[in-house]
Design brief:
Shape: globular
CATH topology: Rossmann fold
Strand content: 15-25%
Number of helices: 6
Number of strands: 8
Order of helices and strands: EHEHHEHEHEEEEH
CATH architecture: 3-Layer(aba) Sandwich
CATH class: Alpha Beta
Distance between the termini: 17 Å
Helix content: 40-55%
Length: 188
């Protein structure tokens, strides 16, 4: 029963990340490549910055919020990070959420849905690949990059164009395949 978790990285008030996350969540549920889709909003998760006294590789968590986050990540077979680009990079909240854990991320694929202005968040997407590969995650090539994201925002919802829809399907197809291929390593 493969499970996909979609992580909304932005926590800013008035953020575009929430409607982008809701859009990709609906696309993933319709895609049916995963039996379960979990929409994780880092604004709701509200993880403090690095408040665990032990290195995450030890899995000696002392706080309930970390234990809950660990269980949620552990139960997922693949991820989609919905992320903005801030000053040519990814935002602090997604880095914090990743760094809270270590072993829970291993051998799981990750797709990237980035958004922003002219660069469509692609610089942030490239930068985060260095982080996730260190944790033995596999970023898939297929991605959704949304330039000038505000043009797709209508009444608080994303109205995707054909390029976005096609890109999302390709990314989800690849996540499904790579997740299945990595399954023996996750069980190992």
């Amino acid at each position: 029963m493969p499970k996909l978790s979609i992580v909304i990285a932005s926590t800013r008030p008035g953020r575009v990340g929430l409607p982008v996350g809701q859009w990709i969540d609906a696309v993933a549920r319709e895609h049916r490549g995963f039996d379960e889709v979990d929409l994780v909003d880092l604004a709701e998760l509200d993880l403090p910055f690095m408040d665990e006294p032990h290195h995450p590789r030890l899995r000696q968590y002392t706080h309930d919020h970390t234990k809950r986050w660990s269980a949620r990540v552990e139960s997922s077979d693949a991820f989609v990070f919905v992320m903005p680009e801030y000053n040519y990079g990814y935002n602090a909240e997604i880095k914090n959420a990743i760094d809270y854990l270590c072993l829970e991320w291993a051998y799981k694929p990750v797709g990237l849905v980035s958004y922003g202005g002219v660069s469509a968040g692609t610089r942030a997407a490239q930068m985060i690949k260095q982080v996730v590969t260190t944790l033995k995650m596999t970023p898939v090539f297929e991605a959704v990059s949304i330039p000038f994201v505000q043009q797709f925002l209508k009444d608080g919802r994303i109205e995707a164009n054909d390029v976005m829809e096609t890109s999302a399907k390709a990314m989800l197809d690849e996540l499904t395949q790579v997740s299945a291929a990595l399954l023996p390593l996750r069980r190992g």
